[in-house]
Amino acid sequence: MLSTGYNWIGYYLWSIKGDNAAALDYFFKALPLAEKVNDKRRISSLYFDIAGVYGSLRNRQEELKYTLMGGKNLPDPSSPMYDYMLVQYQRNRANSFLRIDQLDSAVYYGRVFTATSERVSGINYRFQAAMFNANLNWKLGKNDLAEEYFNKANTLSDSIKIVARKMGFYSRNVPFLLSNNRIQEAKIKTQKAWVIAQQNSNPNLKLQAATLKRQLFDKLNQTDSAYYYLKAENEARDSIFNQSNQNIIQALAFKEQMRSIEEEGKRAAYQTQLKQYALLGGLGVFVIVALLLYKNNLNRKKANKLLQKQKDEVETQKQKAEGALADLKSTQSQLIQSEKMASLGELTAGIAHEIQNPLNFVNNFSEVNTELIAELKAEIEKGNYNEVKALAKDVEENEQKINHHGKRASDIVKGMLQHSRSSSGVKEPTNINALADEYLRLAYHGLRAKDKSFNATMKTDFDESIGNINIIPQDIGRVILNLITNAFYAVNERLKAESSKLKAEDY
Predict the structure, then answer these.
(1) Tell me, what's the pLDDT at 277?
(2) Which of 32, 69, 37 is nearest to 256 (CA)?
(3) Cα Rg for the chain, rounded, in angstroms?
(4) 322: which of 72, 186, 337, 436 lies 20 to 30 Å off by Cα?
């Protein structure tokens, strides 16, 4: 099949040549071909390979996205290829949780990944399971157990033909050795990694090998050598992440996204067409019945009256349908506004909590200023002007804080009113960073108001160079609010489900 050929070409370009953009191009070409014949084995394999490319590009969000899509498209459990696709999904999930230090989830997925790797034939998955368990136990502080798994992976690596996987072993084992001050062993394995990188034209491998060299010489405090390999590291990184490659990858991703949207549209159109055929079939039956009645009715006049009556009924139904359609459109507009108000209602508790903080500050500082002003008057009467100046400065600073927190409360109310009112449809210059931050907090407190067990740490990393952009703030605000609320909800539900699984296994 052509999709299989494209898949293998893409895999060669990624794992052997390190050409991430070209690999993605072939993977995205193969996807619609595999989907056309509903080849679940190939579809899931392509999604996992695409996730792997994004992993090489350090794009963890896209890596997780395509991992989950691969998990949704696994072959039927009765298929002989099911375990081979399942083990890749479990591997990717385990590594995702390990990278973000969610060690409980990493332990769970690592356990099922290891069990599945033992069921399937082939050394590669057992090697990858050993690598994962070595890295996991190292993070858990179990160095002896990590050492056992690293030794197992090292033994299995002799049979591994794919150099990218061997490099993966060195990329994890060398930092482990350096952290335990096993410098001589680290030197030997770092040199092996460097030889592999020099023998291949793969920039992904060169980046990993140069990083290991730089880490080694940093550890040895040999700054000249460390600087040399830092330059090699940066050159490899520039080769992978240069703007041209990024533009190509973004264009490919956008094209794939448009294709997915188009496919969804086609599926919807197909369903509509089926409904139309069903309607036409019903109308056909109706016409046949009418013709039979007409043929069997000897009284032409009565038959014409009957047909006229039926025509009038159809016209009446048409008018009723048109009226119903107009009512539906009106109801739809009302429903949209109702949904916005319902969303506002859900956020009220969160907004109240959010606005309470600055109001508390305003009240507290106002009370403090009242006391300070009384002291100020007393000191004036005493003629103690040095103390008067100090008290006046405190009053001034408190007034600034009152003003700051008052503006904060005003901004929260403004955001609430903006969310509740209908969109004007007019774009206006808006600070997207401030808008996103505002709705992030509203979403968090809104969900906290409904579920007191929910908690999350919010870390933002805004690009301050963006400045103001022309958008419809009400519409974009609702989009941001829905996205963040859904994300909070999905992560919270997944955490509850995984906690339940771990508890069940403990029993």
Answers:
(1) 66
(2) 32
(3) 33
(4) 337
* CA 197 – CA 2 distance, rounded (Å): 32
pLDDT single digits (tens) 307-334? 687 778 777 777 877 777 777 777 766 6
**Helix (H, G, I), strand (E, B), or coil: what is residue 90?**
helix
Instruction: Give the span between the Cα atoms of 196 and 209, in whole angstroms.
Output: 8
Instruction: Return the pLDDT at 137.
Output: 92
Distant-in-sequence, close-in-space partners of 191: CB < 8 Å, separation ≥ 6:
none
CB neighbour burial string for 232-259, b if at least 16 within 10 angstroms, e if fewer: bbeebbeebeeeebeeebeebbeebeee
Given a cut of 50, the residues of the chain with pLDDT beneath it are none
Spatial CA neighbour of 202 closest among 240, 251, 241? 240
Per-residue confidence (pLDDT) for residue 418, from 0 to 100: 60
Claim: this prediction has a pTM higher than 0.70: no
Distance CA 420, CA 340 (A): 6
- Contact assessment for residue 150 and residue 173, using Cβ atoms and an 8 Å cutoff: yes
281 alpha-carbon distance from chain centroid: 45
Rounded to an integer, what distance in angstroms lies between the CA atom of residue 348 and that of residue 447?
Answer: 11
Distance CA 121, CA 132 (A): 18
Report pLDDT digits (tens) over 442-471. Answer: 778 777 767 777 888 888 988 888 889 999
